[in-house]
Design brief:
Elements: E1 12-22, H1 26-31, E2 39-47, E3 58-67, E4 72-77, H2 79-88, E5 95-101, H3 127-130, E6 133-139
Antiparallel strand pairs: 1-4, 1-6, 2-3, 2-5
Subcellular location: Secreted
Pfam families: TGFb_propeptide
Protein name: Bone morphogenetic protein 4
Amino acid sequence: MFNLSSIPEDELLSSAELRLYRHQIDEAIADAISDDQALHRINVYEVLKAPRPGQLITQLLDTRLVRHNASRWESFDVSPAVLRWARERLPNYGLAVEVLHLNQTPRHQGRHVRISRSLHQEPGEDWEQLRPLLVTFGHDGKGHSLTRRTK
């Protein structure tokens, strides 16, 4: 769930994205025989109803096919959900992230994408720098839009 109460009511949101940090998986790179085996699919869903044990009612917002040979940030468009949450000013049920390992190797399923703090933090890993971010873009209606001047 995301607390959107800090967004002013007169703010006009234009878009939103979820940013997730993903770690390189060294063992998976070494085990990959072909390029197809070096892929993961990351799906981001809006949770539409309060979760019940073993059941989420979701709607797909964005998906991405990624190679697991680099550590980097991935951005996912979650605008439809966040714009509705901000407009309706009602509680939301959050987002669900699914990571599918396309080569179906269970031993590599673990720490590719971090969406929660780990009890056993790796040395040199700073959760505050790597935690998922919900980034919103908007305009408060104050000031002037930038315009291009002609000569």
